[in-house]
Amino acid sequence: MSTTVLGAGLLLAVAVAWHAGVVMADARAVARNYPGGRVYRLGHGWTSSSAFAAYHRLARVMLATGAALAVVCVGARLAPGRGTATALGGCAAAVLALVFANRRYGGVRYAGVCLAVLAGCLIVAGLGRAVGGPAWTAAGGAFASFFAAQLYLVAGLRKVRSRHFMNGGVLIDNLAYNAAQAAAGNRDFLPWPRQAALGTLLLRPAPRTVCRVIAVCTALGEVLLGLAVLGLLPAAATLALALLLHAGFLLVSPLRIVPFAAAATGLVLLATAHPMLSALL
Predict the structure, then answer these.
(1) Which candidate, 254, 184, 188, places its Cα nearest to that of 26?
(2) Around Cβ 272, how many Cβ atoms within 10 Å?
(3) Is residue 150's pLDDT more than 60?
(4) Cα(40)–Cα(30) distance, rounded to whole angstroms?
């Protein structure tokens, strides 16, 4: 089993386990602060304590599956063969089933899409290799290349077409929202800038210019990464660009974006081994 497949598997394990940990922490907070009541979740509406209890049970299964996947990846590195390849594909299939079950509570978001796509590619790379041989590892990489290109190109082009994003407005809105959330005690967001200094900061021209430059670089970086995962850039440059972009995304909400960042990076890693253009040529 190739290093890129195992690395992608470990990143999938991190994404699943991190998501499960966040859900379990949320469930404990709801049970502690809203016993027998309801809590409003942005994008999900009102959620009862009983619904969160069921979500908590699903999260524990996800945490165990993520741990099992990590162990299988390490085992496949130490003892490569059909058995460990089958186990890797089986764990990826279990993750895919759990991602679909998660839709009932978490909706469909970029993180869920990335988790599902990466799990599907690892099923092809793992079970396919166990049944059909090493050629299926390349097939898994080609699938990852196609879906990663679609993910980043669509995201990048949508940003390019959004005047509010390209002039830095979305980033300024996020700064204001994050500052308000952090001031209210929400630990999902970095406590910067301080709310007291926010108004003064955003009235100055320099921060607005910086936000505009960051927005333009982000949009163009996503478009470039979407092309790079097809095989138009060397693997090292593609991975470096992916890491740079996702490190920046983590600043928006470090706690919540980790599953998306890990799954998307795993997808890029898998794509760099066997990009779609190399499979077609």
Answers:
(1) 188
(2) 25
(3) yes
(4) 10
* Residue 193: cis peptide before it, omega within 30 degrees of 0: yes
Three-state secondary structure call for residue 14 = helix
Q: Which residue has the higher pLDDT, 48 or 89?
A: 89
Question: Which helix or strand (DSSP H or E) is residue 22 part of?
Answer: helix 3-33
- Distance between start and end Cα atoms, the chain: 24
Give dist(CA 214, CA 202) in Å, integer: 15
pTM score over 0.85: yes
- Are 229 and 145 spatial neighbours (Cβ–Cβ below 8 Å)? yes
Q: What would the two tokens of residue 226 be?
A: 């979407």
Say whether pLDDT at 227 is over 80. Answer: yes
Give the integer Cα–Cα distance in Å for 77 and 52.
Answer: 37
- Total Cβ atoms within 10 A of residue 48: 14
H-state helical runs in the chain? 3-33, 49-78, 82-106, 110-132, 135-161, 163-166, 169-183, 195-203, 205-227, 235-250, 254-273, 276-280
Three-state DSSP class for residue 212: helix
Q: Which residues pair with 47 in a beta bridge?
A: 39
